[in-house]
UniProtKB/TrEMBL annotation:
Pfam families: YjbR. SUPFAM superfamilies: YjbR-like (SSF142906). It comes from the Bacteria. InterPro entries: YjbR (IPR007351), YjbR-like_sf (IPR038056), YjbR/MT2646/Rv2570-like (IPR058532). It comes from Alistipes communis. PANTHER family: CYTOPLASMIC PROTEIN (PTHR35145:SF1), CYTOPLASMIC PROTEIN-RELATED (PTHR35145). This is Uncharacterized protein.
């Protein structure tokens, strides 16, 4: 996966916003105003995804290309090193999981969250 494929995939998810709130080179994707993944545009070797804390540790133990996020809360964020033999399908699955985790638990107000979840339930997410 390269930076353009990453960007295209993230933008294919419903209600996603793209921004660069930290600097001109860090691409951030949000759902409902909440960040679910980010990556550096200049040297796209890794991207960060939000994770359930128990799952985050298990993924780090299982995959060489998964580590605690360099610039994120180590308990809730993993870095996926796309140059370390992680399949595109695995990376997309982790992005989807991050998206759904943030959508279910971080988007407020509740009425907005419920509307967005209903849309996703009806239409699904891209593979």
């Amino acid at each position: 996966m390269d930076i353009l494929e990453y960007r295209d995939y993230c933008l294919s998810l419903p209600f996603v916003e793209e921004s660069t709130p930290f600097d001109e080179t860090t691409l951030v994707f949000k759902v409902g105003g909440r960040m679910f993944t980010y990556a550096g545009m200049e040297d796209f070797r890794r991207l960060a995804v939000k994770c359930d804390p128990d799952e985050a540790v298990g993924l780090r133990e299982r995959y060489e290309g998964v580590e605690a996020a360099w610039h994120g809360n180590k308990r809730h964020w993993n870095d996926l090193y796309v140059d370390r033999d992680l399949s595109d399908a695995f990376v997309r699955e982790q992005i989807r999981r991050s998206y759904m985790l943030v959508l279910r638990h971080n988007v407020t107000p509740r009425t907005l969250r419920d509307e967005m979840l209903a849309h996703v339930a009806r239409h699904g997410l891209p593979e």
